[in-house]
């Protein structure tokens, strides 16, 4: 049994949805493209699962958050795929790939042949068993990667109202889930080994703001230790957790957010790898010229930092997918991908965005006892990153524009004093007098790219639930 397609997207997540829209825009013919996904639904905006989907009142549900609502583009319902002649092969896992024969074998025994393949298999949640602890299959232990995880989590939250939850992990998933649990009237203890939350991005000072805010909502932080084992009742339900520091915590439910791993195993030994992902060039082409890789699994060149990275964030999934399709469909008109890393999160009434790189010296700014504050990162004398909580659209657009230029900064005190107004003022000057920007004594703008045009990466945050 087999079918042939000119273009196959393997994976049905964020990148797949944005790739499909781009294929449609570029005029793919009916019957040429298929998406194969082991999920039972058409591509959707995954970030909604830890935000709008978990709200106690008026939660987001499909079809409300199918891609590409997160970027204010068309919302691609299953009907949209039918209308565009794009085949959705859902609930179907690909179990092996042969890059020489250009075939994929599905768990249902079908062989699918492609001319061009886009790998968009994303990442999976790391399981407790991978850190030597049993219990993933217990009915009250939850992960959060896909719709079925989110549905289980919602059901558990409903059953545990007024009870206790342990959140294992202090990263994105842990922080967003802890907020949702509280909003669903569940007492939360967060357990993680670091000395502060979101250790890969936050500074201790930024983390302390969020921890205090969470504490004010009733969340307890148990830091510097980790889970040793889960305790079960006779029905196999978790009733508590032993921690490595000897403490015991009672639990009605557990949420595990201990990281993610890229889904790349189908291609190991067949394609070149880097940073744990599939190595691609600036057109997202892998070491095999018929195969492209996008989203969480792609290790791609970041021109701005002269580096190659894998970025597990939704903005990168959206943009890498679009770029790869452009490269496939119109190779003569494509320019090199020039990405400015952008991450965001929202929980409770808080909302932050980060642009660039968090390396070098940190300069905090703003009102850490209020609602608007942030930090700049200055590396080798250049502004390379900016974090802002509580900003407005104008602030974030300015940050994206200015960080992309990597201006040379001579006076760190000026960054601290002016805060976000610093980048806003610089971006306004850029807009008014692009060719001969007046250089302030303390600040020189260094043009990273030739010419003046700055492609500000405008945040995709218009939808409340995405
Ligand atoms: C709960 C949650 C909240 C998030 N919130 C944010 C946020 O606020 N901000 C942010 O920047 N990022 C966020 N992210 C990260 C963001 O969602 C990911 O970076 C993005 O989804 C990556 O897109 P992708 O298409 O590469 O992978 P995915 O969206 O994960 O899609 C991969 C798809 O491939 C399928 N698949 C994998 N292997 C196979 C196979 N062998 N056969 C068939 N199908 C397969 C998977 O089932 C899935 O459908 C969040 C992630 C999660 C899980």
Tell me briefly what this model is.
The protein has 466 residues and is of the alpha/beta class.
Give a verbal description of the structure.
The chain has 466 residues and is of the alpha/beta class. The chain has three domains: 2-122 and 263-329, 3-Layer(bba) Sandwich (FAD/NAD(P)-binding domain), CATH 3.50.50; 128-258, FAD/NAD(P)-binding domain (3-Layer(bba) Sandwich), CATH 3.50.50.60; 349-443, FAD/NAD-linked reductase, C-terminal dimerisation domain (Enolase-like, domain 1, 2-Layer Sandwich), CATH 3.30.390. Helices cover 23% and strands 28% of the residues. It contains nine helices and 28 strands. The chain has helices at residues 14-25, 78-83, 147-159, 172-183, 204-216, 314-329, 393-405, 412-418, 420-432, and strands at residues 2-10, 33-36, 87-89, 94-98, 103-106, 111-119, 123-125, 141-142, 164-168, 187-192, 220-223, 227-232, 238-243, 248-250, 253-256, 260-262, 273-274, 277-279, 291-293, 298-302, 307-310, 342-347, 350-356, 361-366, 373-379, 382-389, 408-409, 443-444. Strands 1, 2, 3, 4, 5, 6 and 19 form a seven-stranded mixed beta sheet that branches. β4 (94-98) and β5 (103-106) form a beta hairpin. α1 (14-25) runs parallel beside α6 and α7 packs across α9 (420-432). The longest helix is centred in the C-terminal third of the chain and has 16 residues, at 314-329. It is globular. The chain binds flavin-adenine dinucleotide (FAD).
């Amino acid at each position: 049994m087999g079918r042939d397609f000119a273009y196959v997207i393997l994976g049905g997540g964020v990148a797949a949805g944005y790739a499909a829209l781009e294929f449609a825009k570029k005029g793919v013919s009916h019957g040429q493209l298929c998406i194969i996904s082991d999920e039972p639904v058409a591509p959707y905006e995954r970030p909604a699962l830890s935000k709008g989907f978990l709200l106690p009142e008026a939660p987001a549900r499909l079809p409300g958050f199918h891609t590409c609502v997160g970027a204010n583009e068309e919302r691609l319902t299953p009907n949209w795929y039918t209308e565009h002649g794009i085949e959705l092969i859902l609930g179907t896992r690909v179990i092996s790939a042969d890059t020489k024969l250009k075939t994929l074998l599905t768990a249902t025994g079908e062989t699918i042949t492609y001319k061009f393949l886009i790998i968009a298999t994303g990442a999976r949640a790391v399981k407790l068993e991978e850190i030597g602890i049993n219990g993933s299959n217990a009915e009250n232990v939850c992960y959060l990667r896909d719709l079925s995880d989110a549905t289980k989590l919602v059901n558990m939250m409903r059953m545990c109202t007024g009870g206790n939850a342990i959140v294992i992990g202090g990263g994105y998933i842990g922080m967003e889930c802890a907020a949702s649990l509280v909003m669903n009237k569940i007492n939360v203890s967060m357990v993680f080994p670091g000395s502060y939350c979101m250790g890969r991005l936050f500074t201790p000072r930024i983390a302390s703001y969020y921890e205090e805010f969470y504490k004010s909502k009733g969340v307890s932080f148990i830091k510097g230790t980790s889970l040793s084992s889960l305790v079960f009742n006779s029905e196999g339900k978790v009733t508590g957790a032993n921690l490595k520091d000897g403490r015991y915590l009672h639990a009605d439910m557990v949420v595990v957010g201990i990281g993610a791993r890229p889904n790349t195993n189908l291609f190991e030994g067949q394609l070149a790898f880097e940073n744990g992902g599939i190595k691609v060039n600036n057109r997202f082409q892998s070491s095999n010229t018929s195969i492209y890789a996008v989203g969480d699994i792609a290790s791609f060149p970041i021109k701005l930092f002269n580096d190659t990275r894998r970025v597990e964030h939704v903005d990168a999934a959206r943009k890498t997918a679009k770029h790869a399709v452009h490269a496939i469909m119109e190779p003569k008109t494509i320019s090199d991908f020039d990405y400015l890393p952008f991450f965001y999160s929202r929980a409770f009434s808080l909302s932050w965005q980060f642009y660039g790189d968090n390396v070098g010296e940190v300069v905090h700014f703003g009102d850490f006892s209020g609602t608007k504050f942030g930090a700049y990162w200055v590396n080798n004398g250049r502004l390379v990153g900016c974090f802002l909580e509580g900003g407005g659209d104008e602030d974030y657009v300015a940050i994206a524009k200015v960080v992309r230029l990597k201006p040379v900064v001579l006076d760190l005190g000026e960054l601290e004093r002016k805060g976000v107004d610093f980048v806003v003022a610089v971006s306004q000057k850029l807009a008014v007098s692009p060719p001969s920007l007046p250089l302030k004594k303390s600040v020189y703008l260094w043009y990273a790219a030739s010419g003046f045009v700055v492609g500000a990466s405008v945040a995709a945050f218009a939808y409340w639930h995405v």
